[in-house]
Amino acid sequence: MSGRREQVMAALDVLLISARMQVSEMRAMPAVVTFAFVQPTAFLLVALLPLTDSSPEKVTRIVIGVLLTSFWTSTVWGTAGVLRRDRSGGTLARSLTCVRDPRLMVIGKGLGYSLATIVLAGVTVTLVLLVLRQPVVVAHPVWLLVGLVAVLLSGTAIGLLVGSIFVITRYGLQLSSALMYPMFLLGGMLIPLEMVPWGLRWISYGISLRWLQQFLAGAAAGRIDLVPLALAMGLTMGYGLLGSWLFQRTIRRTRKEATLELY
């Protein structure tokens, strides 16, 4: 029993150290300015300035959509790029062959990046709303917090999945673009799904952020619907399992087949 507890504590220690390391590294990343400040500001101005219905419920839904959209961008370009940056920096071999499970390092860095990004984006959105004097409604702050935790977990799972693909292929930047912009159209975060053709709308059912948007908007307006939250967490678990399996294959290629390009 004590041995199991020591393993859990050691794993948590790796997660926390990796998260702190990633937050420290973000200070030198110019892209953080875009993800956390420029993009949410631009999205808010584009969505709110021409708005005719400025009711708190409508504004709140737009704010949640902007936050999730910025979070998705940072997940694809930031969290999922942890392994890609390790490869370009020449430290990927050490990361994948360390004593501890390398997935802990990737998950920890992903959590650190996701948490820092969503906090900074939240501060940016708050300042813009104060300048524009736009009201918002927060009927159930506790459930909103639960939803934000789910967002962090989902982003980390997606980061592990996409980050593993980044290591296998050298076309990570192209893959980022291919994943990012369709999400803007099909995720239902900024563009209502009713405006998306039915032939493409079904794709949104497999996007966890679509369901989290629905849950968060409902919780803010006073409607607690746990079905979207459960669907989002189910998809998150699927992302995590698939990402873990793919990451294990990456490690096997590194340690046994010697076919993975580490630099």
TrEMBL record:
Primary site of residence: membrane
Q: Which InterPro entries match?
A: ABC-2_transporter, ABC2_TM
| Topology in membrane | Multi-pass membrane protein
Q: Where are the transmembrane segments?
A: 28-50, 62-83, 104-130, 142-167, 179-200, 226-247
Q: Which GO terms describe its molecular function?
A: ABC-type transporter activity
| Residue intervals of the ABC-2 type transporter transmembrane domain | 22-214
What is the protein's given name? ABC-2 type transport system permease protein
Organism the protein comes from: Nonomuraea thailandensis
